[in-house]
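Thread amino acids onto this structure.
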């Protein structure tokens, strides 16, 4: 007797119409190893891309030719089946199953051709309509199989002969399930257990096929899958007869697969994580800080089998402990020698998480880095792999990955916070490209664990399915939230959400919350907040615009008359105050603050930390909605004034966005419950908001690529770069294939509607990209040009880059200078800011003034005309020039108050809102790298000098070029007011600082000895760098 075996496992399919599986390969690998340990003989293990239709048919025909009647033959297939009775091989195409998959009747004929009288076939797949509804089109008429073909059960019943038995995983209309806990398909798992002599399988050292069928039916049909609570019933064909074979033993091959290890379940005790190799110091730190794991965290680890490398999509309310789930998965990866990357939507969140991770994990030797595009970034350590945990913004990581796909090579876990941003038109397309890259990379065998953290989603299953992740949904909050809507008449309609255990929780309440009606809408947040503060609450007030934030904060400060937040005022940076800073001090003097991007990073961080400290005296914080994006800043009550995005054609907030803001109410461990209030202008508005937000489900998450505002051209460029850059030149068909892997295409397959990427629209986008120089076409296909690379790596839109290109083409080589580059940067849509568009009562005089100054700064006339744009009769349109001049002055080290005065000279004193100078400079710093690259490409003969090294840093920090070497060598960031103080005191060069009088320098450093030491060390290092010889100093003079 000779044993012959064929073991096939397909996790990853060539066509995205088939969902990736998690354990089909493991099924085949484990069964192959176990049988090989016990039976010497020819076997074939065929996995993923090798498991094509041709390969399967070839292997089956070979078995038919080589087998003898006395041989023992075993064939297993783990993968997808189809509703039309085919086995889906790796290269199967859902649109052409008859040609590309293996028909079940054909498979059965090949089995019949195998002469062995001891034949065992296990098909761990299903042929149900429900299982494949999301990946395959419904056959005509909704039939379960083709009219010309028999059903799967009819086909399998043709297997005849004693000792020839075929198992299928499911009956009609059932799904063949995979278990993340068991790490197998159910049929394969229980088959392995049976072959190893499970105690529940009667035997005397032998396995009888008749008993085996009973065992498999009982075990599989009684198994309830985690999360889904679904079941399946296997089916059998053929006749077992009295055939038996010895119980198998687990040998070295099987042990080498690790199949005998099963992930242990954890409890609420942090100590239960110790079995996963997480450092004991980290577990001790978690226990000290958090006490124990909460229900959501335990469920995520156990149900998603997170610590065995499985992906998860965690959908839960604010403050539910989602971030901790990502940390647990990451530290497990670190224990296994892999790295973890956290992606967050904002720099503020990155900095917040970075500080927390360093405090929590550095003692255990875990190295944490951050990269946001700032000077102090740890980007060199990212490229060297000198880290365990890396924290980045979405845009920065995706930009880096586009040019350096190898950054993913050693990453084991990718944690994406606020993953529901996938649906936002501003950020969604970029995130969707990232996940599409990862999916295509997985197809080549490079799997990456994804942990997505989201607000509560209504249809998390769809997104989870696309991400190949397990959905973990949790709606109960740690503290009860009572959500309400209040009108100008002072009447409040409210209800408590999940989490409470009081009889009144969940019931609606109507009450006269304010003693009297208010006369204007702007008065409503003031009177409501006053009532809440009287009750002892700490309050966050959300306003849609920065202007409304500032005016509301000033009104609240005057109305409430709270004690001064003296400690906060004393810790504010001094020496570079502008109008916004003056207003902040005025409000803080009465216990109120506001949080907007106009403030410096140091100021925002101070306000966030102070609001968490009861002794700070800060009782009310007014903010734009960015504060709701993950910064851990809860309050007793939250007031939401608007539910529409400003400046977007009145695009309404989504339900998750609303829930994120409302969810800031309620402080775990400090209050039993929180309260949120949405403001309404009329009783009808109260009812509308109540229905659309308070009582509403989050609604379906929809791919942002399907949004009408999305520019398809930028997404097309993504098909050529990042982890799919190995594809090289692409044809039109290759681009279309790339888009079939997107979330938009997945949603179209699930619910067919208008195709998201019809061929003509892609062809048009490609043609436009070729015409504008972003793609080049040759006989071998399409490829990115230098401009295409700049676009995808910078994140700038195609139109923005084209605007800069056209502007710089009109500039002579000797016209490329600092101000020219700043002006070119301001032609991008990313730098446009309506807050600089102030209307002057003397528009012609202002235009002439700006024009004259731009020319004096060396800006060529053609570029000046683009910056100023078409003359507007109403006096607007000068915002681009105003912002560009502000950025120039910022890089010269001018005080903020001087800059504000200079750019508003032509505005009336009552209307001198300057625009956010700091933010404009920061945005220009982000864009400047791309502008410099474009300049080098468009004007290759221009001498950029040291501008690439100096200008981005000057824009970021607001310092003159002489201080850039100093900034590069500092161990910790030196605040801008210190640089300005150095200038005021005459320390204008590095040499002057090195030789400076230390008591005076200590005064410059605000009496901070550590800052002074940092300053002097940096100056010494910068001086040493400047004293290094140039290459020309070391090379001999030419002799020929």
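Threaded sequence (1040 positions):
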């Amino acid at each position: 007797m000779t044993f012959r075996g064929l073991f096939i496992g397909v996790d990853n399919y060539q066509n995205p119409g088939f969902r990736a599986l998690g354990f089909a390969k493991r099924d085949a690998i484990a069964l192959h190893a176990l049988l090989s340990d016990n039976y010497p003989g020819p076997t074939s293990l065929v996995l993923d891309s090798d498991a094509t239709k041709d390969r399967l048919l070839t292997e089956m025909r070979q078995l038919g030719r080589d087998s003898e009647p006395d041989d023992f033959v075993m064939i297993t297939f783990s993968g997808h089946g189809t509703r039309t009775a085919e086995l889906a091989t790796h290269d199967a195409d859902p649109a052409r199953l008859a040609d590309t998959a293996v028909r079940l009747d054909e498979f059965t004929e090949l089995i019949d051709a195998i002469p062995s009288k001891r034949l065992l076939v296990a098909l761990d797949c299903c042929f149900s309509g429900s299982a494949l509804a999301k990946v395959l089109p419904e056959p005509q008429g909704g039939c379960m199989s083709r009219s010309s073909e028999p059903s799967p059960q009819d086909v399998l019943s043709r297997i005849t002969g004693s000792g020839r038995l075929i198992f299928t995983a499911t009956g009609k209309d059932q799904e063949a399930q995979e278990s993340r806990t068991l790490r197998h398909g159910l049929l394969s798992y229980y088959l392995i257990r049976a072959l190893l002599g499970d105690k529940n399988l009667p035997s005397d050292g032998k396995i009888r096929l008749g008993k085996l069928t009973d065992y498999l039916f009982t075990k599989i049909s009684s198994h309830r899958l985690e999360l889904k609570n679904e079941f399946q019933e296997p089916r059998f064909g053929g006749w077992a007869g009295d055939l038996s074979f010895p119980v198998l033993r687990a040998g070295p091959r099987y042990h080498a697969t690790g199949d005998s290890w099963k992930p242990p379940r954890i409890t609420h005790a942090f100590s239960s994580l110790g079995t996963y190799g997480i450092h004991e110091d980290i577990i001790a730190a978690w226990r000290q800080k958090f006490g124990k794991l909460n229900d959501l965290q335990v469920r995520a680890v156990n149900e998603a089998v997170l610590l065995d490398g499985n992906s998860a999509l965690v959908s839960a309310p604010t403050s539910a402990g989602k971030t901790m789930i990502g940390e647990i998965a990451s530290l497990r990866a670190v224990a296994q020698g892999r790295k973890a990357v956290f992606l967050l939507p904002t720099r503020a969140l990155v900095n917040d998480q970075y500080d927390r991770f360093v405090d929590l994990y550095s003692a255990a030797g875990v190295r944490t880095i951050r990269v946001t595009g700032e000077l102090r970034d740890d980007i060199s350590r990212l490229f060297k792999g000198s880290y365990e945990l890396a924290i980045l913004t979405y845009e920065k990581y995706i930009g880096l990955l586009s040019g350096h796909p190898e950054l993913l090579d050693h990453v084991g876990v990718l944690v994406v916070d606020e993953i529901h941003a996938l649906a936002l038109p501003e950020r969604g397309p970029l995130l969707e490209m990232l996940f599409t890259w990862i999916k295509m990379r997985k197809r080549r065998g490079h799997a990456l664990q994804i942990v997505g953290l989201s607000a509560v989603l209504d249809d998390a299953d769809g997104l989870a399915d696309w991400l190949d992740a397990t959905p973990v949904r949790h709606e109960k909050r740690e503290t009860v939230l009572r959500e309400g809507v209040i009108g100008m008449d002072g009447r409040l309609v409210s209800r408590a959400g999940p989490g409470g255990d009081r009889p009144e929780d969940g019931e609606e309440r109507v009450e006269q919350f304010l003693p009297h009606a208010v006369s204007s809408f702007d008065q409503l947040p003031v009177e409501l907040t006053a009532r809440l503060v009287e009750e002892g609450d700490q309050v966050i007030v959300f306003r849609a615009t920065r202007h409304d934030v500032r005016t509301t904060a000033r009104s609240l400060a005057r109305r409430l008359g709270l004690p001064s937040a003296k400690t906060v005022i004393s810790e504010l940076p001094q020496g570079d105050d502008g109008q916004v800073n003056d207003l902040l001090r005025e409000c803080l003097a009465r216990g109120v603050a506001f949080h907007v991007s106009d403030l410096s990073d140091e100021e925002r961080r101070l306000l966030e930390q102070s609001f968490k400290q009861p002794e700070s005296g800060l009782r009310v914080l007014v903010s734009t909605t960015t504060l709701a994006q993950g910064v851990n800043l809860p309050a007793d009550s939250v007031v939401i004034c608007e539910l529409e995005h400003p400046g977007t054609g009145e695009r309404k907030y989504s339900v998750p966005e609303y829930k994120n803001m409302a969810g800031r109410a309620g402080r775990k461990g400090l209050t039993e419950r929180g309260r949120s209030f949405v403001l309404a202008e009329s009783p009808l508005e109260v009812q509308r908001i109540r229905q659309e937000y308070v009582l509403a489900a989050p609604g379906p998450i929809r791919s942002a690529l399907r949004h009408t505002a999305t520019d398809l051209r930028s997404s097309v460029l993504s098909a050529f770069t990042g982890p799919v850059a190995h594809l090289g030149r692409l044809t039109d068909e290759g681009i279309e294939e790339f888009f079939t892997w997107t979330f938009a295409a997945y949603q179209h397959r699930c619910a067919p509607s208008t195709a998201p990427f019809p061929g003509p629209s892609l062809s048009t986008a490609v043609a436009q990209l070729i015409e504008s120089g972003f793609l080049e076409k040759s006989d071998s296909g399409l490829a990115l040009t230098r401009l295409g690379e700049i676009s995808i790596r910078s994140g700038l839109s195609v139109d923005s880059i084209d605007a800069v290109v056209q502007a710089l083409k009109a500039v002579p080589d000797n016209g490329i200078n600092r101000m020219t580059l700043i002006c070119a940067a301001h032609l991008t849509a990313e730098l446009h800011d309506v807050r600089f568009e102030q209307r002057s009562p003397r528009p012609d005089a202002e235009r002439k003034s700006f024009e004259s100054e731009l020319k004096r700064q060396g800006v060529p006339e053609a570029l000046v005309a683009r910056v100023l744009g078409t003359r507007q009769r109403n006096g607007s349109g000068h915002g681009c020039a105003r912002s560009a001049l502000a950025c120039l002055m910022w890089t010269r080290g001018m005080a903020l108050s001087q800059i504000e005065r200079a750019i508003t000279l032509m505005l009336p004193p009552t209307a001198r809102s300057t625009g956010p100078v700091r933010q404009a400079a920061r945005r220009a710093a982000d864009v400047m790298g791309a502008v410099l690259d474009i300049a080098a490409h468009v004007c290759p003969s221009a001498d950029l000098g040291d501008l690439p090294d100096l200008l981005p840093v000057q824009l970021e920090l607001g310092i003159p070029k002489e201080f850039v070497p100093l900034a590069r060598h500092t161990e910790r960031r030196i605040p801008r007011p210190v640089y300005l103080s150095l200038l005021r005191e005459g320390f204008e060069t590095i040499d002057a600082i090195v030789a400076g009088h230390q008591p005076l320098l200590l005064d410059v450093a605000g009496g901070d000895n550590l800052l002074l030491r940092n300053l002097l060390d940096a100056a010494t290092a910068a001086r040493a760098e400047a004293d290094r010889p140039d290459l020309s100093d070391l090379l001999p003079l030419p002799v020929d």
